[in-house]
Every structure is written in C-alpha cells, then in structure tokens.
Specification:
The complex is a heterodimer of chains A (362) and B (185).
Chain A (H helix, E strand, L loop, with lengths): L1 H17 L4 H12 L7 H11 L1 H16 L4 H21 L5 H25 L13 H4 L28 E7 L2 E3 L9 E10 L2 E3 L15 E16 L7 E16 L1 E5 L2 E9 L4 E3 L2 E7 L8 H9 L7 E2 L11 E3 L19 H8 L3
Parallel strand pairs in A: 1-3, 2-4, 3-5, 4-5, 5-6, 6-7, 6-8, 7-9, 8-10, 9-11, 10-12
Chain B lengths: L2 H12 L1 E7 L6 H8 L13 E8 L2 E8 L18 E7 L6 H12 L8 E7 L9 H7 L10 E5 L8 H18 L3
Parallel strand pairs in B: 1-3, 1-4, 4-5, 5-6
Antiparallel strand pairs in B: 2-3
Classes of the chains: A alpha/beta (362), B alpha/beta (185).
Protein name (chain B): ADP-ribosylation factor-like protein 2
Pfam family, one (chain B): Arf
Keywords (chain B): GTP-binding, Lipoprotein, Myristate, Nucleotide-binding
C-alpha cells in the first residue's frame, strides 16, 4: 500500500505541476482508495506550509499585544482586520483541496481572531467614531411641511405603493425648485430611515458646516438612505451615514455622501462625491463620475481623517460590466471638474437656478 | 427497505443541510450570515458572486450559500437551486419602494421545480431602523399567505444587533430536520 501510494504521489505531483487545474479531480479520485496515507498533493502542502508559518502566530501575538495595551488605535485595528480578511480569502480559495478537518481547524482559528478583533474594536471605542450633537427641542416648532410652490415638472402619479407606504419614517418627496434642509423633513422621529423621492431642480442640504448656516444647524441622524427619481438636483448628505445608501433612477445630479454601502441603479449623468469603506456598486448606469467627499463639508477633523484613510470611493464595481476591463459607465472625476471647496451651496440664500446650472453636470 | 429509506438513511449519516440565502440587494444577506458565524460585520461590500459558509448548528452541518442580489446576478440564482433543503429569503424592511419587486422575485422563485418542498424562512431584516415595516406588514406586502407550496414562516430580525437570527435559524433547521430525518414513510 505504501509503495504504490508513494508512486502515485510523485505521479500526481508531476501532473499537478503541469496542469494545476486538474489536481483536485485527481486528488478526489485517488483519495477514494489511498485515503490519507501520506498523500498530500502539492498545493495542499504549499498551503499548509504557508499557513503553519508566520501570519497566524504573528497575528495572535499582535492581538494579544494590542489587548494588553488597552484601547487600540484605529489604524492598527484596520490593519489587523485587513490581514484577517486576507487570511480568510486564502482559506476560501483553499477549500477546493483542503481536507475538511483542516478546514475546520483553520476556520476556528480565524474565528477566534475575528472575535478578538471585535472585542478589541468594541473596547477601543472610548469615544464613538461618529456622534451627532443634536438639539432636541429645535425640531418641534418649525417642522410644518413645506407646500410645493412650483408645479412638479411631470405631473406623475405618486409611486405605486400599496398600504405599506404609510410610513412613520422620514420622507421628503414631490418637490421642485426648492432649497431643502433637515427642517423641511416632516417627521415624528428624528433618526433612522430617510427616503427622498421625486425631486426636480432642488438643493437638499443635510450637512451642517462649521460656520453654521441657518436652518441646517442640526444634523439628522440617518441609518439608512433611499433616494429615488431625482433630477437636476444637488443632494448634500453628511459623511457619516451609519448604514447603506440605495439610489435609484437619478439623472443629472450631484450626490455628496458618506456611508457604509453604496448602490446606485438605473441612473445617468451623476457626479458622486463619496466617503465609503466598502466597494460602491453601480448597475444599469451611464455617465457616472466618482470622486472623494469634499473637505469643506466635513465638520469634524477626526472623522475626516478616519474616513479618508480608508476611502474606497474609486473601487467601483459595475454590475452591468463584469469584466476585467474598465467599465464604460463610470470614470474618475478629474480634480479640475470638481466643485471648488468654497462653491457648495451652503446657505438658503443662494440663487437656486444659477447654482444648479453652474454646478450640475452637463 | 425502499429506495427512499436508503436515501434517508444516507442523508442521516451525513446530517448535512444545504441552505440558500436569497433576496434583493441591500437586504443584508451577507451581514446576517457573518453575524450568525460571529464574524466582523463592519466592512462588508456588496456581494459580487457568492459566499459559502459551513458551520455546525445543533448537530447539523449547514452549508449556506449566500448569493448576491443585484438585479444583474438574479438570473444566476438558478444555478444554486439543486438539492436545496431550505431557502432563507431576506427582506430589507426599510425598503418600501421595492416591496413589489421583492414580492415578484419571491413568488417566481417559488415556482421553480427544483425548489419544490424546500422550507422557506423569511427574515424581515433591519428592524433596528426606526420606521421600518413590521413583519406583519411585510407578510402582507409579500402576500405570504398565498404560499401553499412551501412551509414558510416570517421572523423579524436585525443583523446588526443579532436579534432573532438564531430563532429563525432554529426554526428552519428544525423544519428541515423533521422532513428529512424523522418522518417515516
């Protein structure tokens, strides 16, 4: 048994080196009768060798070190998270040829790493990364819904939603030619879901700037954002939306936004100024540009640093173009075409029409 | 001993289940899965393709397939239907605009022959968001009551807080276990 299996082993190894993609098939076939008697194919051995060596040991010692140090810095945590993710990816890639026992072992190792990372993260949050200082009382007085002055360009029927649309979330919709701030949002609650739909020729400013323009002195806390059917408008959101953003059917717009996940569907001619730590997604879009979140709209320099160091606003994935080549549907917005830092429509007093025609993509 | 008994015995030995996580994009499928597996959920990107997780839950080995929900990826769902014991349909409870879309995708999924008999767990996710729809509202919006072909149940949950995730998983695993391993012919 021993001799033939060794023979086979060398045979396989030779084969494997020649045609790496057939190794798993051969391995399956062979393992049927020689099982595990010293038969470890080349890629498996390579994986084991690498895995047994440095990274995991080094990682665990680093984790311990960080734990003993007390609150860990964000950079160190991010770096660790990245490495753990890398290890996990390697493990996933290796599932094809790794025996299930070893898979489970590595899986448990990785899990302990991840758990300790989570612990570290929660312990290091001495001050929350983002926090909103919201004045509670100011809301109640001025929150009468604004009547739409201009006639909406298309007298389209409101979105066909059933009884389900009786929401107690915040909704801003069916307006045109308006400058809107957080006080324009008719709502009972002041945190959570925000839905914006059916706007035309509007500026929506939900960002409070350091110099405190009137009407926008309170940032609304947003944990999920849905934007739909917007045209010829500028939407300014804070850089720290604590959740995902879903944008649908936008045309000729500027979006300024920071969030955990970004998805845009069926849109065209949109400039996106983004702060994000995951890959932005576009689907069925055209003429989209991406660039970083504008500096002048940050109101907290710490948050700014955190966000900009991990910004992945250019790792856009176009689901309508899943190929290695560059997607024709989006590009990087050159710095020369960015809205200048001082040029954002901060205050209600701006000339709406002129601002829109000056800033919007043509 | 009929053929069915042999098949059952065979599966009993393995104690494996294959569970498919589906739903529209932005529903939180990957986040739920990572939370269940006690992984870090802070830096998840939208899924391009799919993730596989294998973990042991209550004597059973669960093979969980989490397939991306972007419109472009939905035609590929069918590639994962074979031998599926349970479907977990994840719904973003804050996404009122796409409930219709969500309902259509779910009902067309349930007409698939290869999914006949699979148990259906609906997760009304993102309950941590204020203003999200309740599980009753979602049940109504998705017309779950009309489903006669599959055993189904809806759980409201939050992937961020972990609320109700295990309860949902327990239900679906119990349901599949009853069907595959304990029923007698």
């Amino acid at each position: 048994m021993k001799v033939p299996s060794l023979l086979l082993n060398t045979l396989i190894e030779r084969n494997v080196r020649k045609q790496p993609d057939t190794h798993s098939a051969i391995l399956c076939f062979i393992s049927g009768f020689t099982f595990w008697s010293g038969l470890v194919s080349y890629p498996v051995r390579r994986f084991l060798k690498r895995r047994r060596s440095l990274p995991s040991i080094e990682l665990s010692s680093r984790l311990d070190h960080l734990k003993s140090q007390g609150p860990a810095s964000l950079d160190a945590l991010n770096e660790l998270a990245l490495e753990i993710a890398k290890l996990r990816k390697e493990l996933t890639d290796a599932t094809a040829y790794l025996p299930s026992y070893d898979q489970r072992q590595y899986e448990t190792h990785l899990k302990t790493f991840e758990q300790s990372l989570v612990e570290l993260r929660s312990s290091s949050v001495s001050k929350p990364k983002f926090s909103f200082k919201r004045k509670q009382a100011a809301q109640s007085g001025s929150s009468s819904p604004q009547p739409a002055k201009g006639v909406p360009q298309s007298t389209s029927v409101p979105p066909p939603i059933s009884a389900a649309s009786q929401s107690n979330g915040r909704i801003l919709s069916n307006l045109s030619n308006e400058y809107l701030t957080s006080s324009s949002i008719p709502s009972s609650t002041s945190s959570g879901d925000l839905t914006i739909s059916n706007l035309d020729n509007c500026v929506v400013n939900l960002v409070s700037t350091p110099n405190g323009s009137p009407g926008s002195n309170q940032e609304p806390k947003i944990t999920a954002l849905h934007v739909r059917d917007i045209s010829n408008s500028i939407l300014l959101f804070p850089p720290n939306i604590d959740g995902s953003a879903m944008l649908h059917n936008l045309s000729r717009c500027i979006i300024v936004l920071g969030c955990h996940q970004f998805r845009m569907h069926s849109s065209s001619h949109v400039n996106v100024y983004l702060a994000i730590s995951s890959n932005p997604i576009i689907e069925h879009c055209s003429d989209i540009t991406f660039t970083g979140y504008p500096f002048s709209l940050f109101n907290d320099s710490d948050a700014e640093k955190d966000i900009l160091t991990s910004n992945k606003h250019l790792s856009v994935q176009d689901f309508s173009h899943i190929r290695p080549s560059q997607s024709p549907n989006w590009r990087i917005l050159p710095d020369s075409e960015r809205v200048p830092e001082g040029g954002w429509p901060h205050s209600k007093d701006v000339d709406l029409r002129a601002t829109l025609s000056r800033l919007l993509p043509t | 001993m009929g053929l069915l008994t042999i098949i059952r015995k065979n599966r009993q030995k393995e104690h494996e289940m294959r569970i498919l996580f589906l739903g529209l994009d932005n529903a939180g499928k990957t986040t739920i899965l990572k939370k269940l597996n006690k992984e870090d959920i802070s830096g998840i990107s939208p899924t391009l393709g799919f993730n596989i997780k294998t973990f042991v839950h209550d004597r059973y080995t669960l093979n969980i397939w989490d397939v991306g929900g972007q419109r472009m990826l939905r035609p590929y769902w069918r590639n994962y239907f074979e031998q599926t014991d349970a479907i977990v349909w994840v719904v973003d409870s804050g996404d009122r605009f796409r409930m219709q879309d969500c309902k259509e995708e779910l009902h067309s999924l349930l007409t698939e022959d290869r999914l006949a008999g699979a148990s259906l767990l609906v997760f009304a996710n993102k309950q941590d968001l204020e203003g999200s729809m309740t599980s009753e509202e979602i049940s109504e919006a998705l017309d779950l009551k009309s489903i006669r072909t599959h055993q189904w149940k809806i759980f409201s949950c939050s992937a961020v807080t972990g609320e109700n995730l295990l309860e949902g998983l327990n239900w679906v695993v119990g349901e599949v276990a009853n069907r595959l391993y304990y029923s007698t012919t």
